[in-house]
Design goal:
alpha+beta; two-stranded antiparallel ribbon; 5 strands; 52% helix
């Protein structure tokens, strides 16, 4: 897994946002606001081995049960994945291949 390097995480006026740069700025006019949990997940993508590792880290960091953490991590990252903000997530690549067939 990895984040798209054309999106930069910044804090602006106390809000965490992803700002598109380079060619990404031509496809997205604006910024993406992230919650505290979204920022945490974004920061895990480049260092975690898989979605389960991010889920485990969420459980350790926040007061959330495993089922909710798993659902939230998968849902959030899937939205970023289909929009090109994160790449190389085998679970999602397989899911998309199956829906195309």
């Amino acid at each position: 897994m990895k984040t798209n390097s054309e999106f930069i995480l910044r804090e602006i006026a106390g809000e965490a946002v992803l700002i598109p740069t380079g060619s990404a700025s031509q496809n997205l006019n604006g910024m993406i606001r992230l919650t505290e949990t979204g920022v945490f997940i974004w920061k895990q993508v480049d260092t975690a081995a898989d979605l389960e590792e991010i889920t485990s880290r969420i459980i350790s960091e926040f007061e959330v049960d495993e089922e909710t953490a798993r659902r939230d991590v998968r849902g959030f990252l899937y939205e970023l994945y289909i929009r090109g903000l994160v790449t190389d997530i085998p679970e999602f690549e397989q899911k998309i291949s199956e829906t195309k067939n």
